[in-house]
Amino acid sequence: MNAEAQVHQIDPAGIVADLDARARRVETPCGDGAIVWRIWGEGEPLVLGHGAQGAWSHWIHNIPGLAEKRMVIAIDMPGQGDSAAPPQPDHDAISTVIADGLNEILGDRLPVDIVGFSMGGVCLAHLAYYRPDMVRRLIAVATGGIDTPMGHVELHRLKGLDEKQRKEAVRANLLAMMLHHRESADDLSIHLLLTNARKARVVSRDLVLPARLLKILPDIRVPIDAIWGELDAPHPDPVVQEAVFRRFQPHMEFRVIPGAGHWVMYERPEAFNAALLEMLAKPVRTMRQ
After folding, report:
1. Which of 31, 50, 100, 287 has its CA 20 to 30 A from that of 203?
2. Are 85 and 79 in contact (CB under 8 A)?
């Protein structure tokens, strides 16, 4: 059976449900409900925060490998996935409920390594800004909000399309925004986009733009490293992105994953995991005050 035939025979919902069933689910207070956290593995904790209109499943290709080395704690960010909306749709409120949740889950195991993808990177950078005592280091993955030129991205409208047309429009949107190679925009990625987008209850754009991360970067006293996809469409040219971060974190490590788009950890999971674990294995830099 060829690879294309195998792709079309996968059960996306089953893949998500299987990994979800292997997690330990924890809930901590958030607004009128709870933040939902999922935990796999043992050892040193590693917190993962997903991107806009996403959920823990943004990391679906990465969690099994990372959980062989670390205790992986994946958040459904407030107002997305299975988590309730934050008390207010701003970074102060979001950071507060995440900090309270981490303190409840990890207690004296704090501070912790955190990894934030795209919008999640901006949110977790604010956690590092407000609560540097809780964050050992931040690894920003394809994170916007730093006032660099946006790539030209054209998205298809889904309203009024039949099922087949809708699926192809979603695939086109994934290739325009999130992924670079057509084979990466598989049935699982389409399922994740549709499922997670329906659950989103916050305006993610307002948490990133205008230049939300750049405003706090000069005052973050936590070491930041970064991983970028070579072919990131919304935040193109990793050299440009690196230059902004390095103005404030001159000794940072900035890794570029070849052949990967914006959703770098989904498109090139093995290369991403290897880069991330290598970065985490290095001693934490001491920040100058």
Report:
1. 100
2. yes
